[in-house]
Amino acid sequence: MDNIIIKGIRFHGHHGVPEAERQVGGHYEIDATLRCSLVNAGRTDALENTIDYASVVDLIVNIGIQQSFQLIEALAETIAAEILKQFPIDTVQLTVKKLHPPIEQPISYFAVEICRP
After folding, report:
1. Which domains does the chain have, with CATH numbers?
2. What is the pLDDT of residues 58-76, one digit of tens each?
3. 8 A C-beta contact, residue 108 and residue 59
4. Which helix (H) or strand (E) holds 94?
5. For 97-113, what is the mean pLDDT?
6. Where are the alpha helices (DSSP H) in 2-71?
């Protein structure tokens, strides 16, 4: 099986457990790996025989900015379910990062990584 890899999808979303954090929002970054056969696309050089990367990015960003979740785990599950519903892929792997989370110690990010068939 082959992979389509999309790295560094960034947006400002309103997610977090405290209501104040959801109101202010924060920065998020998502990496997606889509498992599917790319043989036909490679042989035909035709967009209709592959996954439209821009459509996947739009879907991820739209969910990230239009919906609000307490947990990045829920954000990841929702995105994975929609990708699997809308695109002909076998598996999706997502890494969802909450950049510079509002905690006392300065860290780069919190992240969850899920893989769904």
Report:
1. 2-116 (3.30.1130.10)
2. 999 999 999 999 999 999 9
3. no
4. strand 91-99
5. 95
6. 19-24, 39-44, 53-66
Q: Is 114 exposed, middle or buried (0-12, 13-18, 19+ CB in 10 A)?
A: middle
Token pair listed for 24: 């202010």
Indicate which residue of 7, 85, 97, 98 is catalytic: 98
Give me 60's structure tokens: 């991820």
pLDDT value at residue 25: 95
pLDDT at 98: 98
Compute, in degrees rounded to 10, the torsion defined by CA atoms 36, 113, 67, 52: -20
Residue 7 is a catalytic residue = no
